[in-house]
Amino acid sequence: MDTYDPKTAHPSLALHVADPNGIPLLSSASLSSTGNSSQLKALTELTTTCLNAQEIAARFGLGSLQRVSIETANGANVMQRRLEPPTVGGDDLQDGKQDEVERPERDAKQHGTANGNGNVSTQAEQGPPVLVRTVVVPSEADLAEGRQAGEELDVVASSFQQAWLDEMAGEDNNEGMNGYGEQEE
């Protein structure tokens, strides 16, 4: 999948992928200041809701959040998924199952907190962020299309996370190199 335009792929659905800071990486809502800011605001708030649900699940000791679903009386649905990034070692999550290993150091670093020596680590230094995928389906008749769109967004989001890791691995391999691929003296 080279480019994915959510506005043309599924025009009847609202699609959104955002990081934990609410920054959209992909959205069917207009990202310009003159566009439909109410839809962007609503999708951003849904992202926050999904992340809050993860925190609540953790407080209750329920394990890692898989999905959040909302169904309204008129048949509209919201389907969300929290997408963990693949691990650096390459043991990606399989079959859509989140691993059950607690990673407090990764969770803490994703939010730019102090590391062991008191320096603040940023997300860029630690790897790809957790992403939240949101699909808003206007009616029950569109549920199959919504599920398909969700699967497509999962692939796009995972590709983004993997590209981030690949770029980090390239930077690690290029330490001590000048900008021309030659060893610095």
Give the tags.
5 helices; single chain; five-stranded antiparallel sheet; globular; alpha+beta; 185 residues
Give a verbal description of the structure:
- This protein has 185 residues and is an alpha+beta fold.
- It has five helices and five strands, in the order αββαββααβα.
- The protein has helices at 6-9, 37-59, 104-110, 123-126, 143-173; strands at 14-18, 24-27, 67-71, 77-83, 131-137.
- The protein has a five-stranded antiparallel β-sheet, sandwiched between helices.
- Strand 1 and strand 2 form a beta hairpin.
- The radius of gyration is 18 Å and the shape is globular.
- The termini are far apart.
Distance between the termini: 41 Å
| Biggest beta sheet summary | 5 strands, antiparallel
Roughly what fraction of the amino acids lie in strands? Answer: 15-25%
The general outline is globular
Provide the spatial order of strands within the biggest beta sheet.
2-1-5-4-3
Low-confidence stretches: 91-121
CA gyration radius, whole angstroms: 18 Å
Order of helices and strands: HEEHEEHHEH
Please give the count of helices: 5
Task: Please give the share of residues in helix.
Answer: 25-40%
Q: Work out the number of β strands.
A: 5
Overall structural class, as computed from helix and strand content, comes to: alpha+beta
Instruction: Give the integer mean of the pLDDT values.
Output: 77
